[in-house]
């Protein structure tokens, strides 16, 4: 990225590598970045970029100005700390210094990954997101909801669900704001707290059907995941992360979306209405 005479960021020619570009956040980051006039280099395995194969990284990063880094499955895995650290060092070596990492709010297990980024020499920004609203409409939770029940180990804890489109808008604003957010850790939340039961009730109302929420102990949920063939080490990490995140530590909202994009974050009710209209929970 270059700066013009007035010292503001010149984003005309800025190229950003977007990892996970076929996923929930990456697809929206790519769309928002294109909308802001950035050149997007979409990165995923189909496009020859593999987090598990470092020999694919340089061709993806070379001559870019910035990168959005999301590590598949979970940012709190030991593989994420290793991969993000190694990729960040390689990016810096190639002159791609501006790196934005998607992390998870309140997830102690993600701290080594964040540290791997911040010690890499990059001009970093960390975006710690709350639980995505789109977890309910895209991914493994959808199937149960389509059949009328969400079984999940979240008890009655409350969470400020964040719309992934707000994550994308924040990442894009961060990338197009020069050095303003370099060295900052942002915590993104939606505008209000909802329990899983309340969230499912809002979705149920939006669909005009009946979807119920059944809380279960984390251990039984882990056993169910194992029964679906999720590898033991992933089950162990996910259940540990769920126990960490569901203890009430995240039951408050922040103002960071508004600070960065200058408007309130999207409300869960709007997400539920739009996703229902798009048929997210239709059989
Ligand atoms: N869900 C939440 O509420 C939440 C909250 C905060 C933070 N997070 C963090 O968000 C991240 C997940 O982000 P997301 O939900 O946007 O992802 P996602 O929808 O699960 O998509 C995963 C993306 O990663 C790509 N991918 C998978 N394996 C890959 C590999 N070996 N090499 C390169 N690309 C690979 C996939 O593309 P291909 O399959 O085409 O390669 C896909 O684009 C995790 O780190 C998680 O900890 C999640």
From TrEMBL:
It comes from the Bacteria. SUPFAM superfamilies: NAD(P)-binding Rossmann-fold domains. InterPro entries: Ergot_Alk_Oxidoreductase (IPR051604), NAD(P)-bd_dom_sf (IPR036291). PANTHER family: PRESTALK A DIFFERENTIATION PROTEIN A, PTHR43162. This is NmrA family transcriptional regulator.
């Amino acid at each position: 990225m270059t700066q013009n005479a007035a010292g503001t960021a010149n984003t005309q020619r800025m190229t950003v590598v977007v990892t996970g570009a076929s996923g929930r956040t990456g697809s929206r980051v790519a769309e928002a970045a294109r909308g802001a006039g950035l050149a997007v280099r979409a990165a995923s395995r189909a496009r020859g970029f593999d987090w598990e194969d470092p020999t694919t990284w340089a061709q993806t990063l070379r001559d870019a100005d910035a990168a959005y880094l999301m590590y598949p499955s979970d940012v709190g895995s030991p593989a994420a700390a290793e991969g993000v650290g190694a990729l960040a060092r390689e990016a810096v070596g190639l002159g791609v210094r501006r790196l934005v990492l998607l992390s998870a709010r309140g997830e102690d297990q993600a701290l080594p990954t964040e540290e791997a980024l911040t010690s890499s020499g990059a001009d970093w920004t960390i975006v710690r997101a709350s639980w995505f609203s789109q977890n309910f409409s895209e991914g493994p939770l959808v199937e149960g909801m389509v059949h009328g029940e969400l079984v999940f180990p979240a008890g009655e804890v409350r969470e400020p669900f964040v719309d992934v489109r707000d994550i994308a808008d924040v990442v894009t604003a961060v990338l197009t704001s020069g050095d303003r957010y370099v060295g900052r850790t942002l915590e993104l939340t939606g505008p209000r707290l909802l329990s899983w039961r309340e969230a499912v009730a809002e979705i149920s109302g939006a669909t005009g059907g009946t979807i119920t929420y059944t809380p279960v102990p984390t251990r039984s949920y882990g056993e169910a995941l194992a029964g679906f063939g999720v590898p033991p080490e992933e089950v162990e990490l996910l259940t540990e992360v769920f126990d960490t995140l569901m203890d009430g530590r995240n039951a408050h909202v922040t103002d960071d979306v508004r600070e960065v994009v200058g408007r309130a974050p999207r409300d869960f009710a709007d997400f539920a209405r739009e996703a229902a209209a798009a048929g997210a929970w239709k059989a």
